[in-house]
Amino acid sequence: MKLSKHPGEAPGAGPPSDEEIALRVREGETALFEVLMRRHNQRVYRAVRSLIRDEAEVEDVMQQAYVLAFTHLSQFEGSSRFSTWLIRIAVNEALQRLRHRGRLVALSGGGDGTREEDMKDLEHNEPGPERRAFGRELARHLEQTLDELPDIYRTIFMLREVEKLSTAETAEALAVSEDVVKTRLHRAKALVREQMTARLDDQLEEAFVFQAPRCDRVVAAVLERIGAARR
Fold first, then answer.
1. Is 183 exposed, middle or buried (0-12, 13-18, 19+ CB in 10 A)?
2. d(CA 34, CA 226)
3. What are the residue ranges in the chain where pLDDT is below 70?
4. 0.85 cut: is pTM over it?
5. Of 55, 71, 60, 70, nearest in space to 93 by CA
6. Of 32, 90, 124, 197, whose CB neighbour count within 10 A is largest?
């Protein structure tokens, strides 16, 4: 008999959708919330990491976002994808942290936040003989490049190009119009040199990877907080 790898997956059947699992959690199968966290830890991490660079605070924001999603799961109506709804919560929590620190990031404001003049020249990265190590080196260089982008461009670039959200999903997650997403994505790409951009498609999966130990740590912390609240 083939056993399912995760709770909530019937033997021999395909995995249930996020929306199906969310409904079951709302109906009392709270342990299944772990499935949703493990499915989306990488995506939530990248969304938060695009706004907050301190890794310890990123994990704290992720935990709080998951707790908020769990406690407000009744508000998820299924009109959009669960992942989009979850990212919206995570982004809002990250923005709240920045506001409390006095560093307001206007993702939906009128100005475009252009700071091209503040950008450092991007390093020209020619392929060398160490071809086998090139992938990870390029990913590290990409992380550095994205960190240097203005906040409003980095977040949209991360969600659209790294996580492959659609324009509509990104607009919904960030509470901006689709035209704003398109304009800022175009500006973000313009800030990255041609040679880096040409290699992005094959390297994006290696950027800002949320490793298994960190995934386990966040999941365990969230489950503990949820359990404590229920008790």
1. middle
2. 11
3. 1-13, 103-135, 138, 193-207, 231
4. no
5. 60
6. 90
